[in-house]
Design goal:
- This protein is mainly alpha-helical.
- The protein has 7 helices and 2 strands; from the N terminus they run H-H-H-E-H-E-H-H-H.
- The chain has 2 domains: 76 residues, no CATH class; 56 residues, no CATH class.
- Helix 4 links the parallel strand 1 and strand 2.
- Helix 5 packs across helix 6 and helix 6 crosses helix 7.
- The longest helix has 19 residues.
- One of its GO terms (molecular function) is dipeptidyl-peptidase activity.
Length: 135
């Protein structure tokens, strides 16, 4: 574990900012398998979203440990230098347009309403209350 212990690594935001995806994978390889007395056992990984990204990367980085990975809703190629940032927006927008152009327009217009509300005095506070955001 980075910094010698989990307690030290999670002590504050300063130390957390240095933890990386590579460290998460390495911790799994070294600590988790050892703690479960499973060093010799093959692993099949499952994950969704960020967990799916970790599962896929783990399979790529450690194929001798992970014999398979199922990555659901894992945007593993969604990086600026690989895929244009608006790609997800375009795909999601087209899904709504295919079902109902009216639905698409209502959703699209809602963003303008949210932005306008957020720019008002106390608008962000009102949005926080309306949508029950954590703060």
């Amino acid at each position: 574990m980075p910094y010698g212990s989990m307690e030290e690594a999670y002590r504050n935001a300063t130390t957390l900012s240095y933890l990386t995806t590579e460290q998460a994978l390495a911790v799994f390889v070294t600590d988790l398998k050892r703690n479960l007395s499973a060093e010799a056992c093959p692993v099949v990984l499952f994950g969704g979203s960020y967990g799916g990204m970790l599962a896929a990367w783990m399979r790529l980085k450690y194929p001798h440990i992970a014999i398979g990975a199922l990555a659901s809703s894992a945007p593993i190629l969604q990086f600026e230098d690989i895929v244009p940032p608006e790609t997800f927006y375009d795909i999601a927008s087209n899904d709504f347009k295919c079902e109902s152009s009216s639905c698409f327009n209502i959703i699209k217009d809602s963003w303008d309403a949210i932005i306008a509300e957020g720019q008002k005095e106390n608008g962000l506070l009102q949005l926080t209350k309306t949508f029950h955001f954590c703060w």
